[in-house]
Design a protein that fits this description.
13 helices
Length: 253
């Protein structure tokens, strides 16, 4: 893959804010990984091969709760399902010359990287994506390493306090959705929590399968409600939503 220095640097510069955010968030991941019982090599490899943020915290929680491997894999798949759509959309804009390049680009797609690449008005080619994704990825991996090894010297009370990072992360993901759709995301979160409680404490299902079933049922119900609501509105968006489509160059049509 032939990389252009100017586009590579432009991608790396665009990724600096992402690097900072990922580095700080993954320190919490490294601390939690140490508390879960993973080795340093496992924690770093975990971050290097997954690069999924929320799903990694979820997987740690499932590992700590003793979930089966199939439960962990399936939960991980469901949480990351949106990246299939993001990758397909992004690859309509990125100029690549070899088939393998689109697989490398798809591996490095995250919410933040997708947003930056889709709104960039420059030449979004493989060089730009390499700079953007490698810089962002390095922030996540180095942060996990720093967090893991810092856990050896930090007080136990401080390391334990980092457990709240998992809940803070999912809250940060949920609040913007509540602002956009208001009732449905909030109702979905409450319903998923209620179902998970029933499955785990009443029906005595393993924690992993309780979580998986809660996500599937709630997601299907929310999708059905959204589809029905929008069809009743004749496809019209709620007030305050912008109209029009975003073109491949990030411009509104």
């Amino acid at each position: 893959m032939r990389l252009t220095k100017i586009d590579l640097q432009r991608g790396a510069v665009s990724a600096v804010p992402i690097f900072i955010g990922y580095f700080t968030a993954s320190i919490a991941f490294g601390l939690l990984a140490r508390g879960t019982g993973l080795s340093g090599a496992q924690a770093i490899l975990f971050s290097a091969t997954s690069f999924t943020g929320a799903a990694q915290f979820l997987r740690l929680n499932l590992i700590a709760s003793g979930a089966f491997a199939a439960e962990i894999v399936f939960s991980f798949f469901l949480v990351n399902l949106r990246y299939f759509l993001m990758s397909a959309s992004l690859l309509t804009k990125v100029r690549y010359t070899r088939q393998y390049q689109k697989y490398l680009i798809s591996f490095g797609v995250t919410d933040e990287i997708f947003s930056v690449a889709m709104t960039d008005r420059g030449d979004v080619n493989t060089s730009y994506m390499a700079g953007l994704q490698v810089t962002s990825w390095s922030g996540w991996v180095t942060g996990a390493a720093v967090g893991f090894f810092a856990g050896a010297v930090l007080p136990a009370s401080l390391s334990s306090a980092m457990q709240v990072a998992l809940f803070a992360l999912f809250t940060a993901l949920l609040v913007p959705e509540i602002k956009k759709e208001k009732l449905i995301p909030f109702a979905s979160a409450v319903s998923a929590a209620a179902l998970n409680t029933v499955f785990y404490f009443v029906l005595k299902l393993p924690s992993g399968w309780a979580l998986v079933l809660s996500m599937i049922i709630t997601s299907l119900a929310a999708a059905a409600v959204l589809t029905r609501t929008r069809s009743k509105n004749g496809g019209r968006k709620e007030p305050g939503h912008t109209h029009g489509k975003i073109s491949a160059t990030g411009e509104r049509q």
